[in-house]
Specification:
Layout: H1 12-18
Length: 25
């Protein structure tokens, strides 16, 4: 989700923009 960017494993679209160093697919 929006707040759970680091815990967002399913929606990697939000995580990829910030946590691009750890691609949690």
């Amino acid at each position: 989700a929006l707040n759970s960017e680091e815990k967002d494993n399913s929606g990697s679209l939000t995580s990829s923009r910030r946590l691009y160093h750890r691609p949690t697919l």
